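Hi support team,

I submitted a single chain yesterday and got back a structure, but I'm not sure I'm reading the token output correctly. Could someone confirm the output below corresponds to the sequence I sent? I've pasted both exactly as they appear in my results page.

Thanks,
R.
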Amino acid sequence: MEISSRVLLRIGLQIVGVVTIITGICHTIATWGNLPSNQGMMPMGIMVVSILIPLVTLAAGVFLVFGTKSLTEKLYPEEEEKMDSSQNIFSLAMKITGVVLLVTALPDAVQILSYAIYIKASSPVINNSVQFQFIYTKLVSTLLYFVFGWYLLQGGQLFVRLAFHHAQDKKA
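Hi R., thanks for writing in. Yes, this is the structure output for that exact sequence:
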């Protein structure tokens, strides 16, 4: 039985979605369990974002499980393409890895955005060193996750050429 690229990609994205849902549930339990103890010490905006981050993760997971049909149709418009070579399978794995990187970056991206809004809206008298430290340590890595994730989702041709340079040498 041959399986098309589109079907394999959809299955892979749905598996990533299940893992993302489980991660979102774990983060929700951990975050919401700490809210009552931190209520007086945490600004309202940051508390709201702390509630939203696991929900964004859950939503991304639900989308990956239930809404991947249109995404896979965009990435593989031709249903007939079959997985006939290791290079095609590798390219498909690169796309799935790209989605993993994008989903992994979502919570930190939301947190960075919320901290930036909080810093902008807060009084200059308030000490924002914790928020600045988080942004400083996470911004570059989060941006890299998004850039590499998007690149891999588009096929990651550099990595394909690196992985299969021997096959391309034989063609030339």
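A quick pointer for reading it: Residues 5-171 form one domain. Let us know if anything else looks off.

Best,
Support desk
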